[in-house]
Hints:
About 40% of the residues lie in helices and about 15% in strands. The chain has 15 helices and 14 strands.
Amino acid sequence: MSATGEFNPLRESDRTMSRISGRNFLFVPGPTNIPDRVQRAMVVAMEDHRSSRFPELSASVFEDLKKVYKTEAGQVFIFPSSGTGAWEAALTNTLSPGDRLLTARLGHFSHLWIDMAERLGFEVRALDVPWGEGMPLEFIEAALRADTGREIKGILACHNETSTGVTSDIAGLRSVVDACGHSAMLFVDAVSSLGSIDFRMDEWGVDLAVSGSQKGLMLPAGLGILAVSPKALHAMQSATSRRCYFDLADMIATNASGYFPYTPALPMLHGLRESLNILFEEGLENVFSRHHYLAEGVRAAITEGWGLRLCARHPKWYSDTVSAVTVPEGIDAAHVIDVAFRRYNLALGSGLSNGAGRMFRIGHLGDLNELMLMGAIAGTEMAMLDADIEITSGSGVAAAAGFWRRHRQRQRCTEKSGRAGVIPDRADYQERVAVESALPVG
């Protein structure tokens, strides 16, 4: 404290005070807030995972995960790992050492996938894309058309690049591959999109879709989830990469009867069962609409209220699960994050790799509503003011409140929720927002 008793967030002695009362506000882009129902579902006595009753649980989550991926033809696998484990499983089960892959390095997580592929012995051609842009479809098309010998075996794409707040056009990517008549498999990282942003595995022709438990599925970290198309399953027959723990053949042999080749994460499976129940009760399309609606309010706070820039360079790439905020020159974003955490008990996502010190990230996915996000926006605003960022106090809160009061989330009636309305696609939603923005608040 200063001589007058005023709190000084810049002083180390003040920043290391005793525990802050109240609940921590978790607004990183994963892990996300866990619903009370899911937490209660995971408080279970240990059970025999080889009992005759266990397949009732496992079979139900396998089948319902397919609905979240929107696949009928694909097969879903669950590993006791993070999403990174599912990355490795996707690569090693379908490729052979020396196989060529095509991708773009457009953020921290796309870089990590490239790094893994190279360390596993695959040859990766990657275009470095400015942070804030999505998958470069023209580059992919040119590379595929030049590959007359069909040496490219796979394309790696992050559906939602968490480090930059960018969502890429996977449907457009599939159209490019089809237009080139190329046989490369499509590998997609859906870790921070599945269960929050519409993902259509079958319609988009995705061959391997990687995800994890700690984001849109509203669970702790600990489950790596992989959906595999029939084409990718067929590729396993000729793939010679070495694998053991992540061998899909072992999973296929045991999953068929509802079991696993080794001890599964039992409490997590019970939690997954409940999180799927929650998603289906709200209705998947309503979940996607809610995420877009909430994200638009956060973006209004950032760009209209605070006058700051998003890392995403164009609205077509705006992510509905995370916003990466660029701080003004001369400001250390890490300091903003530290003040938010130590003084206001608010956890914001840090800038990663090229974004370190230049940006912070607000996660807006999972079990969230307007008032929860209002707390995050208010806390972020106070932390920025404490860090000497010149914004108007209350401006972000006002901009978000104005957006959410002026608009309504349109919902589709579901059998369980009974909610009325029809969900538009994203373009229709944005057109409606533009019209409603001219209306008075009330």
